[in-house]
Amino acid sequence: KISSVSALEILDSRGNPTIKVYVRLEDGTLGTASVPSGASTGSNEAIELRDGADRYGGKGVLKAVENVNTEIAGALTGKWATDQRVIDDVMIRLDGTENKDRLGANAILGVSMAVARAGANISGLPLYQYLGGAGTPRIPVPCMNILNGGEHADNSVDFQEFMLIPDGAPNFREGLRYVSETFHHLKSILNRKGLATSVGDEGGFAPNCKSNEEAVELITQAIGEAGYEPGKDLSIGIDSAANSFSPNLNNQYDLKWSGKGKALSKDLIDLTGKWLDNYPIILWEDPLSEGDWEGFAQFTKKYGDRIEVVGDDIFVTNTKFISKGIELKTANAALIKLNQIGTVSETIDAVRMCREAGWRYFLSHRSGETEDSFLADFAVAMDGGHLKSGSACRGERLAKYNRLLEIEHELKGHSEYRWS
Ligand code: PGA
Ligand code: ZN
């Protein structure tokens, strides 16, 4: 049973405050968890409670900390940590709002994750097994964002993420090596071209490319120079994060890359067709904005049998929007982020809904992260076959990949590694 719940204000990978939660059980067992934070958010995400005023530029989380230490602690003390769903329901009811803005989704999620950890610890199981149950665990194929643009970098690239996907590797350990080697070859190519090799929020390079297409060309070149075969050993995934260049979040787009300027959904859909013919792309996330449901459906109709079409900002890990997407054939996969919805149980509900509809689901970190590797275990437990946690660089990104290496190692060959 839970004997205490408390929280602390810590800093995330961008140097902004976030929350770390400690859940202690009567026998002394401890569960802790830290909460991530996004930059290019969907407008229907659960709300992070921030203090406002001057401290940390308004981004402090002392109110959320206080809510954990008082109201939430009061409601959960004496409850069984292994009753995850009961605990999450108590917090949802206690908050009482649609988007968790009273107690804060950051406060609620921190507790929800820390309770899961405490539950795993007292059960004597690794977190992935506690949440995932029996069966041969699948280590997810990493989708590694090695070139950053959009709101994650101060450069000329509109699309936010260019991900390398080692779907042809025999196991996770080798897949990670393929990407790391290619990442270093990409650095050499950028150096040769006189382009910047500083990195963006997710550890990918953030060069000032001449166009969005140059970014995908450079990556394909790096795959070859690293000695791998594009489309066989390594594939590419893109997250346009189109909200960030759609000022009114509708079907109109404002691209900074040279000579393009304004674009409509149709222009972006046509561009995708050309890229799919020329590059080994197997996944495309948020090709259009969260208000462009019609464009999304056309995109999926056109390319959905060739690639995984993922909705992130449009679905925000919320079964209300995912069910609409399933009905309207808006995509064929949903991005899954714990802090978009705010509890472990509701995140599992989103995964279940995708699974039952024959959709894929794609576990994800946020651009603001901590050293907490909860996501790695969670992704194994959810068995989605792939996850994204940024590039082969920056400690908060590697914390998740290193934990996956550890899980694969501990399982001594009794694990799978496959995309689908
Ligand atoms: P965010 O970006 O964490 O800044 O929202 C990640 C994504 O768009 O997938
Ligand atoms: Zn996204």
UniProtKB/TrEMBL annotation:
The cofactors required by this protein are:
Mg(2+)
Indicate the segments forming the Enolase N-terminal domain, all copies.
2-131
Describe the location of the Enolase C-terminal TIM barrel domain by residue ranges.
Answer: 136-420
The record's catalysed reaction(s) read: (2R)-2-phosphoglycerate = phosphoenolpyruvate + H2O
The reply to whether Isomerase figures as a keyword in the UniProt entry is: no
Query: Where on this chain does substrate bind?
Result: 152, 161, 285, 312, 364-367, 388
The answer to whether the entry has keyword Metal-binding is yes
Q: Where is the active site?
A: 202 (proton donor), 337 (proton acceptor)
Its chief place of residence is cytoplasm
Q: Which residues are involved in binding Mg(2+)?
A: 239, 285, 312
Compartments annotated for it: namely: Cytoplasm; Secreted; Cell surface
Q: Which Gene3D superfamilies match?
A: Enolase-like C-terminal domain, Enolase-like, N-terminal domain
Question: One short Pfam family name for this protein?
Answer: Enolase_C
Give the record's keywords alphabetically: Cytoplasm, Glycolysis, Lyase, Magnesium, Metal-binding, Plasmid, Secreted
* Pathway involvement of the protein, from the record: Carbohydrate degradation; glycolysis; pyruvate from D-glyceraldehyde 3-phosphate: step 4/5
* Cellular component aspect of the GO annotation: cell surface; extracellular region; phosphopyruvate hydratase complex
What the protein does comes down to: Catalyzes the reversible conversion of 2-phosphoglycerate (2-PG) into phosphoenolpyruvate (PEP). It is essential for the degradation of carbohydrates via glycolysis.
Which protein are we looking at?
A: Enolase
UniProt source species = Fulvitalea axinellae
